[in-house]
């Protein structure tokens, strides 16, 4: 029987990747390191036997017969295990549903809305206020929309108001602007491409307002469909391309938050292609999209230190341009990447350098992210009291955006556990679990189950600890970041007192440490 072609083999992409890593030493060094890091990290999501088979057979090129003898496996079991491993790797390394798009000709920067010099000056002023962390930007945009002379101008301003209000965590203002924009769109007359551009932006704003991530994801996908149709209808317009890049950036970040790393990488790469192909880089949003892309790639490949260097360059560009809020967002990413790579002291040092100035010019969500990344570093360096003190400034109801309240409870649980306050830690971990359950966020659920398991174990309830530990491991293998998987492995080893698990956690920690510095 003739062998099936690669086109008929759903695992052909991962087979080809492993073959290239084994045989093509001429691959560009940086690309090969990133690819190899991503594969090595993904292997730790597999059972030890499957991991060993892929490492020895696909990466080292050992013979199947030799590996079968060493592992005491029949040929049938060997190839069954290998196929299961390759299927799992394919799921985590590739987005099989990512659509490849051709690049159309470079668009011209044609305006989509009018309004004249007065409106342009007003929008520029509002954007300057927004970048300085001043919530008065919302009043400025609201007044411009109120004074708008035609439907297109008013719809554009209302949508910018909704987008900015979402950035500032002002849900009532964003919701009111979305409702008003929808009314204008339903009652006004617009050219088809312009109408799709506005509809795409409206769907994106609605996505940010949804309390359930999967509903947000559906809105972002709807936004992308409208914007692609707008681009097809009027290729000379640049506005829809900028809006599509922003929507893809939001979708990539949300997919990452959900633990869908292959999808996050594919969507983020498409956003970067738009930014590069159509010269959209001279916008603060594009710097943020680039930083998110670098961060996602770093987490998947483990090369966090190189990512810190790249984002530091983006931070310098933000500073030179006077984009304070963007600089604060990039700073939070740098602090977080240092923590993920185990450089907790560096993370705290970066926070202390940036915080006095950056926090005054930050949007609420960026202020929260910067503070929480620093709090995590304090917890991991044995200073949980300092972590809780920092977290007090952004607690729920006092600066914590609604979408990330479960994450606040999870961080509080980790700090309280380090303080030895295990009953209080259990209460916070359960609050995190309830929040993530309501959001249907499996990556967060895995973290919450791990924290609950740890608290139960220290309170002497071994049965409950093992139940939550099993669920934490399952979720971490499928949706956890490499760093989250390490925390889960370490917790499992400590709770079960398993020498084999301790060795596995130590081996994985060493891998992440080496990759971070590569």
Return Rg in Å.
Answer: 24 Å
Q: What's the tally of helices?
A: 25
Order of helices and strands: HHHHHHHHHHHHHHHHHHHHHHHHH
User: pLDDT under 50 segments (min length 5)?
Assistant: 1-5, 98-110
Counting helices, strands and paired strands, the structural category is mainly alpha
Largest sheet: none
Total DSSP E strands: 0
Determine the strand fraction and express it as a percent band.
under 5%
Helix content: over 70%
Shape: globular
**Integer average pLDDT:** 90
Distance between the termini: 45 Å
What does this structure look like?
The chain is mainly alpha-helical and 518 residues long. Helix content is 77%, strand content 0%. It contains 25 helices and no strands. The protein has helices at residues 12-23, 29-43, 48-59, 64-71, 75-93, 116-131, 136-147, 151-167, 171-187, 192-209, 213-233, 239-258, 261-277, 284-301, 304-321, 324-340, 344-358, 364-380, 384-391, 405-419, 422-439, 442-458, 462-479, 482-496, 499-516. Helix 10 runs antiparallel to helix 11. The longest helix has 21 residues, at 213-233. Residues 1-5 and 98-110 have low confidence and may be disordered.
